[in-house]
């Protein structure tokens, strides 16, 4: 365990917001985390769990303790002719895990290449991209109860996964700390090319010539063409969720805006309810925000869904810009955008 006082968090969040934490602790082992939790008096003191800092907007200095999860480890816990069950520590880098699985020929995570962040954060919002979601290849996870230090096991059903959602953003918010995630990967991969841009990128290849590495590289190329590199321009990827609307609401919007971009929902309960997703980036672009800049806070020139820090923007400035965007989309389309990024 490493402990620092009045520590800058600029290098620990992908927006690059320069705020400080009164106490900053790097957790390298689960026992260190358990020891810290047991040292705290019940109900006394507040602390923030920080993973990769890729889905967070910090708007102020933190008087609380910040715990940076830095645990490492990958372990095959079960294997048969078809599947590999891989247990991964929460502090492992997400994209390094994807690269590792692809290099070993284990299919399932390749469409999720290039997503910033750590493994422990991935189930919280059920990360997804290019036709795949984490829940599709998730087996279980272990989480530590913040009060008792007890390890609790969660299967898919118990996680209550939804679109960029899980029980850890609702009933279990601030109650559990994810320590390990177990994935079920395929030894004979079934390639998911349902996403149109991915189909087009790989259309010149026949089935025999297609492999996990080519899919991963295609996904990374698509991401690079649409999203700014967090190492170059501060951002947290998509700032807003794609809003889910009823079929009646969609039909009404199509009557007023014939070119509106939408997708069929992939979630069973949303499908059953006749719902669809609107493209939040399209809504924002139609309101004139694409490429907008206000000081060092702005909207990316190539992807209106991404808010960026061009250098020294504060979290409050980026949040204020996001509120202006949300208000304008509501006024023009009657649709309320929900933030994907957590604001603190």
Write a brief caption for the model:
The chain is of the alpha+beta class and about 350 residues long. The chain has helices spanning about 30-40, 95-105, 155-160, 195-200, 210-225, 245-255, 270, 280-285, 315-335; strands at about 1-10, 20-25, 45-50, 55, 60-70, 75-80, 85-90, 130, 130-135, 140-145, 150-155, 175-185, 235-240, 245, 260-265, 275-280, 295, 295-300, 305-310, 340-344.
Description:
The structure is a single chain. With 344 residues, the chain is an alpha+beta fold. Helix content is 25%, strand content 28%. It has nine helices and 20 strands. It has helices at 30-39, 94-103, 156-159, 196-201, 212-226, 247-256, 268-272, 280-286, 315-333; strands spanning 2-8, 20-27, 47-50, 56-57, 62-69, 74-79, 83-89, 128-129, 132-133, 138-145, 151-155, 176-186, 234-238, 244-246, 262-264, 275-278, 293-294, 297-299, 306-309, 342-343. The strands form six sheets. The chain has a five-stranded antiparallel beta sheet with strand order 6-7-12-10-11. A four-stranded mixed beta sheet has the order 1-2-5-3. The longest helix is centred in the C-terminal third of the chain and has 19 residues, at 315-333. It is globular and about 60 Å long. The two termini are 24 Å apart. 38% of the residues are buried.
